[in-house]
Amino acid sequence: xxxxxxxxxxxxxxxxxxxxxxxxxxxxxxxxxxxxxxxxxxxxxxxxxxxxxxxxxxxxxxxxxxxxxxxxxxxxxxxxxxxxxxxxxxxxxxxxxxxxxxxxxxxxxxxxxxxxxxxxxxxxxxxxxxxxxxxxxxxxxxxxxxxxxxxxxxxxxxxxxxxxxxxxxxxxxxxxxxxxxxxxxxxxxxxxxxxxxxxxxxxxxxxxxxxxxxxxxxxxxxxxxxxxxxxxxxxxxxxxxxxxxxxxxxxxxxxxxxxxxxxxxxxxxxxxxxxxxxxxxxxxxxxxxxxxxxxxxxxxxxxxxxxxxxxxxxxxxxxxxxxxxxxxxxxxxxxxxxxxxxxxxxxxxxxxxxxxxxxxxxxxxxxxxxxxxxxxxxxxxxxxxxxxxxxxxxxxxxxxxxxxxxxxxxxxxxxxxxxxxxxxxxxxxxxxxxxxxxxxxxxxxxxxxxxxxxxxxxxxxxxxxxxxxxxx
Length: 472
Fold this sequence. Notes:
Radius of gyration: 23 Å
Number of helices: 14
Largest sheet: 7 strands, parallel
Strand content: 15-25%
Oligomer: single chain
Helix content: 25-40%
Shape: globular
């Protein structure tokens, strides 16, 4: 079948793509920016990549007319826009308009469980999108999931951060809210087995694992899996705003996402219509099993996708192509170079930079800069990186976004997502037997100039030390 895959660069989309290819489908991948889309070379002959912005209806013309089915995996929950629910509605309307012009017979939509009358803004928006999609000429299959447990998922990362960093937690009372978590592998099975399956046409289903747990029980379950002793005390006085700040400062999540999650976590999300298990002959794994599988993937450094690589996890919102060429005019540039001893060794060091590896020199200063950024509402440095040794355009690397990652050329270009009175790039490139490193800053007004000269004394200390570590 010819499948339209929206959200191809997202957490679910990245994992669904190889499964669809393995099943013999021809996949048309919708991306906002081709420069952010990484795909193994062996897949390229089996997919078509098109640039589509579902908020701009004219861009949808590139969607082929002979599409047979589609996956709708678009959401804006952690977007910096306060009207993300309106944007989601517009995206869905534009999608329906174009799909109605194709030969598409079915759309599979991954939503959230919405069986409570007092829905959060996020869950209410998910339901409105479902209502819009149901107006299409195609058959709609809606799969409603609660907490998704998998390596790299937002829920998993938040739980891991809380358990690793807080032996004793004073928590809001919504940690006693019940939910029905589901493993990422089961979500992918439901998505693939619903495709071209008439028993799922024009129906909605709740999908979840067999366990109904409170968020507190999920946290303690993670602690048990890691053989850690943790104490959790819930209090009734923590406001939603204070709860959001609590998640924001302790975990790697953005404040916008933390706010959306807190709002949703006050609502019970338990499956009511899960007859799909019998219809498709599936038996979802337990929370403990899903957790165990996710931990193995993390330990083996085989995290296929992470929510943090989404553009909405930081302040970067434009297409990468707009920033690929590092500017010079009106910029301050710190240039340094060193002769390299072993090219392969240096490239591997560069490609392992950040995250758990650190920055090779004066890591405490990098951590302090991340802490300051977090205090001022930035992304901080807790996002780390998805893979310890691989980097691809669009990936997150602490408080940077990867723009260019060409290992053969030995070129890595990063764009700063921390709070700054300007824009900043950090570039590494190897030419012949020399490693060139440049830090470029484009200031905004007098504050930008003051900022540059205030950090300039640290550059020689940090960058020289890092250069030496990269070549030796």
